Amino acid sequence: MVRSAHFAAVILGATLLAPTASFADTNITIAGSTALQPLAQAAADEYQQAHPDVKISVTGGGSGQGIAQAASKGVDIGDSDILAPTHPELVDNKVAVVGFSVIVNPASGVTGLTKDQIQSIFSGKVTNWKDVGGKDEPITVINRPAGSGTRAVFLKTLMGKATLAQDSLVEDATGTVVQKVIQTAGAVSYASFSGTHNKTGLTEVAIDGAQPNDADVIAGKYPFWSYEHMFTNGPATGEVAKFIDFTKSNGALFKKLNFILISSMKVSETNR
Amino acid sequence: MTSLASAPRSTAHRDERIARSILFVCATVFVVGITLILIYLAIAGTRLFFQFHVSPLTFLFSNNWDGADGQFGAAPFIVGSLVATAFAILVGGPLGVAIGVFFAELAPKRVAAIFKPAIEVLVGIPSVVYGWLGLTLLVPAIGQVFHLVDGDGLLAAGIVLSIMIVPTVISLSEDALRSVPDAMREGSLALGATRWETISRVLIPSASSGIAVAVILGIARAIGETLAIQLVIGNAPVIPGSLLKPASALTSEIVMDMQNAQDGTAFQASLFSMALLLLLISMGLILLIRFALRKRT
Amino acid sequence: MASVVAAAPVEQRGNLRGDRARSRRIVDKIATGALWSAAAFVVLLLAFFIVYLFVRGASVISWHFLTGFPSSSDAGGGIGPEIFNSFYILILTLIFTVPVALCAGMYLQEYAGPGRFRNFVQFSAESLATIPSIVMGLFGLLIFVQAFHWHYTALGGALTLTLLNLPAMMRVTQEALAAVPTTYREASVGLGATRWQSLVRVILPSAIGQLTTGVVLISGRIFGETAALIYTAGASVSFGKSAYDFNPFHTAETLAVHLYQTHREALVPDADAIGSGSALVLLVMVLIFNITARVVGRRLTIRFTGKA
């Protein structure tokens, strides 16, 4: 019994020592925004195929986590939909533009809304679709949780001074929000293009006449968009810098996943 | 057994002392553990009050919550947790005691051999699976029954919790009933009482402190449940107007917001304060149990 | 007992025949029926859950699903690494939990007299036991992820789960030891054994069946734990396409956490299917753990004590 205890201790010790016995691989850890995650993951997959000695791990967790972990050096790259003004040590590598849609369940009967209407709906002033030009169907608002990057972009670009009503359903992430809108008659919410484009069972509404597509975002007509940031603690160097450059110029992936190249934008914002 | 006599007495005594010390240390792990947890959570949980100057009264009683925007009134979550737990214990409590009675007094051996393992499986089902079942089965069902667009809310959470605490209440009330001496059963029946009269007027009162413990532990389980309710409660940080409107609870709010709250912010501190509150409630329930048990002789 | 007698009017005492007695018999029958229905209801509910999980999830299960890697944006992801992580964290947790709880249980049961220390430890154990798993997870976050700067690790998750399960494991130990007849201890001491020798060579082997049952049942619960792991072991599998990861210092998303995350993020088009499949696999694992616990426990008891 003592001998097997010794044996077990050796094995356990060996595995615990493993992190110090590093191989020649470079490890890159990325965490943060779930909106950016598909692009980061797909870029990581392609990059690892081309560079077998680099290992990249991509997690979600939300923009807040991305910023926090980049700041605490828990990850190499923190993905975020929002800026990090409280962390001046973080360097902002903008990698993409991502558009967001206000999505509605088809039972609502609307295909376009004005900014004012959106504010009335989300502040709880309007409770039935017929008051905004739709069918006679009660509005079910679905929000993202406080601290969500997507919610922050929504508040900044569309809500302005209007206050969000707090008693709506709250769903955690892009995927759940999209599912809920498809399943719930009269539901309305907001999510990134990569979650909302080409989904049957929901409508992406036009905002003040501008369409939720790449062209209108690029032209600056459609207001609901943000930069995607890859924050690094200090300027990006070495393999991390190479990966970021690889990601932000990967036109083919952008098209596939519904992101927009920063280089194609006709407008720019300093506040996103 | 043969080697017992052959071991020299001095090594046996030395082994005895070493063993006793090791075992003693292991027992202290529990005390050290709970102490560390209390300390760390007390520090992290009071940061909101000391570092960020939010008043504990605001935290406990204000209705106003917007974590990312500096509003830290946790009353909606406290109310949500209490209401969901109350529902769970009002439905699951009697159901659990009833089945506990069933196993202790009524079930023939062969039936018990099937039913008991079934209850054990219910205990083993992970809470995330219960949550998933609630999400895919219960919430749409509530929507249909009540003609709602969306069935998330305290009713859904309460029902899921009831099912989850039933096995706990069953096993503890069964134990409590089994420990009532047979003499009482036989005496009661000999006096001409029916079996139900025996159960309701003799056995349950005798086992009352054990059953009280069963119920209190059921409450503890319900208040601490996280995943199962986060998926069905709607997560609206408000006190809802009805059991059918979206609401939130302490546990579900923590698990949902932790990913969005940045380290070092008041938002994250508020979540730790909610955790501290949960910790204090659980310890309070333990003290309540000890009190209930002491009342009995 | 006096209450039963006093509550019944004189004519009824000791008399189960007659009109008034008939209503008491009817009440008895109704109550019996109600109790049977309650039990049957819960058992049928369980059966319904099992059937539902199988119906929804069975079509998703395939060799590829069970061994493949998860995808974050395409359909067809698998749960291979998550299943591996669930077992890996389980084993790590047991390595820490079983020895400590076993020793603590032995101390309380065989060595400690009734008194303040024993009371203290019992109270600590009960308190630990009622702590909600999310609170324990936050404690793990504070210590292992933040204070130790480990970031999300399998080891951090396992240590958190250890704290969570120590009380249950100790209770299992205490009950198993208490079930061993005192005559064994007396006989052993009578032969000149020290307490430790009695424990190791006589009492523990007798208790091993019940101990094993308890350990396997608790393992089932550890396998399904989520709230304590999300913020300690993390919600991703590290390094994408590389082989199954034995490094305890890497992020380790378990199957239960994966079910939750898949629902949450739902970035893949077949999130619903993956959720159903994961839920089914979790259920099947619980059933396997439960059955194994009983079967192995019974076998060991027969082998070591000669009684069934």
Which secondary structure elements does this structure contain, and how are they paired or packed?
The complex is a heterotrimer of chains A (272), B (297) and C (308).
Chain A: H1 2-17, E1 26-32, H2 37-50, E2 54-61, H3 63-71, E3 77-80, E4 90-104, E5 112-113, H4 115-123, E6 140-143, H5 149-159, E7 169-170, H6 174-183, E8 187-192, H7 193-196, E9 203-204, E10 206-207, H8 214-218, E11 225-233, H9 238-248, H10 251-257
Parallel strand pairs in A: 1-2, 1-3, 5-10, 6-7, 6-8
Antiparallel strand pairs in A: 3-11, 4-8, 4-9, 4-11
Chain B: H1 2-6, H2 9-50, H3 56-61, E1 65-66, E2 71-72, H4 75-106, H5 109-124, H6 127-145, H7 154-178, H8 182-190, H9 195-206, H10 208-224, H11 227-230, H12 250-257, H13 266-295
Helix pairs in contact in B: 2-13, 4-7, 4-10, 6-7, 7-10, 8-9, 10-13, 12-13
Chain C: H1 2-7, H2 19-57, H3 63-67, H4 80-111, H5 116-130, H6 133-147, H7 154-178, H8 182-190, H9 195-223, H10 227-230, H11 255-265, H12 271-305
Helix pairs in contact in C: 2-12, 4-7, 4-9, 5-7, 6-7, 7-9, 8-9, 9-12, 11-12
Q: What does it look like?
A:
The complex is a heterotrimer of chains A (272), B (297) and C (308). Chain A is built from ten helices and eleven strands. Chain A has helices spanning 2-17, 37-50, 63-71, 115-123, 149-159, 174-183, 193-196, 214-218, 238-248, 251-257, and strands spanning 26-32, 54-61, 77-80, 90-104, 112-113, 140-143, 169-170, 187-192, 203-204, 206-207, 225-233. Chain A is elongated, with a radius of gyration of 22 Å. Residues 17-23 of chain A have low confidence and may be disordered. The longest helix of chain B is centred in the N-terminal third of the chain and has 42 residues, at 9-50. Chain B has a two-stranded antiparallel sheet. Chain B is globular and about 70 Å long. Helices cover 76% and strands 1% of the residues of chain B. Chain B is mostly helical and 297 residues long. The two termini of chain B are 42 Å apart. With 308 residues, chain C is mostly helical. Chain C folds into two domains: 23-58; 61-305, MetI-like (MetI-like fold), CATH 1.10.3720.10. The two termini of chain C are 37 Å apart. Chains in contact: A-B, A-C, B-C. Chain A binds chain C through residues 8, 12, 15-16, 18-19, 27, 31, 34, 37-38, 41-42, 44-45, 48, 55-61, 69, 72, 74-75, 172-176, 178-179, 194-195, 257, and chain C through 72-73, 95, 149, 151, 155, 234-242, 246-249, 251, 261, 263-268, 271-272.
